[in-house]
User: Fold this.
Amino acid sequence: MGIIEQTKILGEEIQKDERFIAYAKAKLAMDSDEDMQKKIGDFNVTRMNLEQESEKDERDEEKIKELNEKLRNIYGEVMQSKAMLDFNTAKADLDAMLNDINSIIMQCVEGADPKTVEPEVHSCSGSCDTCGGCH
Assistant:
């Protein structure tokens, strides 16, 4: 069996994993949430309006302030919604699994023993200022 076929098998196993299943369910729930989709649409329209107003030669600073406030409020509502919180949690779990898989593959490419290699352990301080790149 070639490497492409083995990769497809890995893809099948990923799709069977509880982290992928949780992510797929959370994404479907978010995509199906009409209120959430309306808020995301409102956010995008407000962002476009803000960009257009900001690019004008004679900008209306009061309107820009109003649009910024509206944008922040919508963003807060979207990010604090149960659907988005569930989605972000599931996505973070799936991303962690994919990072572990990628770490193992990259170590093997660099010559590590595939039978004994383990995912690299990364610690994140939460500050991007001291970060050497996402893991």
Notes: Residues 82-109 form the longest helix (28 residues). The two ends are 30 Å apart (CA to CA). The chain is about 75% helix and 0% strand.
